[in-house]
Amino acid sequence: MDTSDPxxxxxxxxxCNHCTRALAEKSTLWFPxxxxxKKLKAIVDKIKIQRKGNDYDCIIGxxxxxxxxxxxxxxxxYGLKPLVVHVDCGWNSELAxxxxxxxxxxLNLELHTYVVNWEEMKDLQxxxxxSNVANQDIPQDxxxxxxxxxxxxxxxxxxxxxxxxxxxxxxxxxxWGYNALDYRQIKGIYKAFGNxxxxxxxxxxxxxxxxxxxxxxxMRVLKMLNYLPYDKEKAIKIxxxxxxxxxxxxxxxxxxxxxxxxxxxxxxxFGYDKRRSHLSSLIVSxxxxxEQALKEMKKEIYSPQELEDDIQYIAKKLDITPEELKNIIxxxxxxxxxxxxxxxxxFSVGINIRNALRKLxxx
Length: 363
Fold this sequence. Notes:
By secondary structure, this protein is α/β, with parallel strands linked by helices. Helices cover 55% and strands 6% of the residues. Helix 4 links the parallel strand 2 and strand 3 (111-115).
């Protein structure tokens, strides 16, 4: 990590606050050992008992990326019966679609696809571009989360298997993005820059996320990969050999929009190169040395022609000119989420209350 994160600090040995925190939390959040195997087996056994007689044990959101695909693979290996849902926000790469097809085919799973209204998604994404905030993935991330949870409620499934993991995602500066679950922020930005009415866009409010889903529907999120010796490279090889799965070249690049957002928009407009956080996470996990990471950072993210092709593609899908998209990146005044309505303080209080209640109830 470097000083492109305005909140970063370094100790006397040169360790940044992100690495220091992640190393301190490593033994409490990631169990790539016999202890993790025992913990996971106990959790899976509990789920199977509670869900006996039902069509599904749990729900998985499948994007075609490494994490969610390997999660589905391991869930089936552990004998779970997942309800598999893909939320289509309009930006799937061809490889992502093929990966999803192969995963459900070889694992004999039933796929349910939720297609987000493209006209509403397009207008919301344009509003976010014109707001000049850093986290342009919020419209997609929020819709995916909301659609998945509502699909779970509709099918009476209370266990959500989540592909988030310590091994590859332990470091992500808050200043580089903002909470995708803050619907107040989405509404505020859309009110300022949107042109339509959002009638069907899937969303969740603060109350739904922290009260309705958690305490009324008793939904539980299981980050299954944190109980496994999750090695991304080995996972890719296993899925390539057994499931016909193919890699697409970068973390979260299964979405063509996310690839553009992470590999060009953020570094060009804000100076944030998310490879730093991804590679730093791999260093903390022991899968990469600092020297290997520095060598990786020297690689070209986009070839000039590939970048121009993606700019043309994204501008055309959003019904704007390539020049307008380039102008937003080059000349738009950068803003932060704090420049728009948000529930940051409410989320902070809510998370503290939820964690305290879970500690008291041992859940």
